[in-house]
Design goal:
Blueprint: E1 4-6, E2 12-13, E3 22-27, H1 32-40, E4 50-52, E5 58-60, E6 67-68, E7 75-76, E8 79-80, E9 86-91, H2 102-119, E10 126-128, H3 129-132, H4 142-156
Parallel strand pairs: 1-5, 3-9, 3-10, 4-9
Antiparallel strand pairs: 2-6, 4-5, 7-8
Helix pairs in contact: 2-4
Length: 159
């Protein structure tokens, strides 16, 4: 079981009910503590629901019920404004420079587990920032996205 901390961000929208149709995965480019500082600084209008450190520690910034500001201009499942219906999870670091750690993958699976059945997700409900904002964003690195998706599929099925 990985450690979790809560650092509430002011960068969110209190929606009547976030749809939670799936998850968009990101990398933060910054290390864990630097990302936390960046998210909590009011001059930076960005947030994630969850950030995962290289040791698997998770930091929650925005509760699942609210809209985090992680995707920007984006499209997935035939819809735009992905923030409104996808939860945002980021891995600390840059997946183009260093692969996801075993702890990051395990922590992501642990974070997904209680939500998976509750929301009726399948691997098709999972995406990365590069996919929903092509040409604008490059995270996750394709090989790391493939590793994460394989771990998700192995744990929860290919459904």
């Amino acid at each position: 079981m990985f450690a979790e901390i809560y650092r509430p961000s002011i960068n969110f929208t209190a929606a009547p009910a976030h749809e939670r149709l799936g998850v968009c995965f990101h990398h933060s480019t910054l290390e864990f503590d630097a990302t936390i500082e960046h998210i909590l600084h009011s001059d930076h209008p960005v947030s994630y629901h969850c950030l995962i450190a290289t040791d698997g520690t998770r930091c929650t910034f925005v509760t699942d019920e609210h809209v985090a500001w992680h995707a920007g201009a984006s499209a997935f499942l035939g819809r735009t404004r992905c923030n409104d219906f996808l939860l945002g999870v980021a891995f600390a670091g840059n997946t183009h420079l260093a692969p996801l750690t075993t702890a990051q993958l395990g922590s992501a699976i642990e974070w997904l587990a209680p939500r998976w059945t509750r929301h009726g997700w399948t691997p098709a409900c999972m995406t990365d920032h590069r996919t929903i904002a092509p040409g604008r964003k490059d995270d996750l690195a394709p090989a790391e996205w493939a590793r994460l998706l394989m771990a998700i599929s192995e744990k929860f099925g290919r459904g």
